[in-house]
Design goal:
five-stranded antiparallel β-sheet, four-stranded antiparallel β-sheet, 127 residues, single chain, 9 strands, mainly beta
Length: 127
Amino acid sequence: YVKLALTATSGADGAGAATQTVRLGGPGTLSAIALDFQNMPATTDITIYSDDATNGEALFTGTSSLTDLAPSLIGRPGGDEANAATAATDGTEGCNGFQNQLVVVMAEANAFTSADEFVIVEMWIDD
């Protein structure tokens, strides 16, 4: 379990950005996430990448939102015994792997000017 507070330290309102790297020192999977937006605009983007924000796979993407997200499983489409796909929204877990770290990127947010503009990101991680 990892809990972060993302704060944009520069940029105009609606254009603030922040990046935090969570170094875990080994492989794992990102199983679930929760988001708590504190006085952010509806343009706020949150993306979590495996290992690298440039070349890593996006394990979670939330765009243009200020709606809090209760703890929720994130998964990938899978297959059952009949080889039928399950929807990405079915709450399946797995295939959200990383090798060493997670990179959490916030964009199009408000800059931290009044001590109450940030996003709390909670991540549940399996190793």
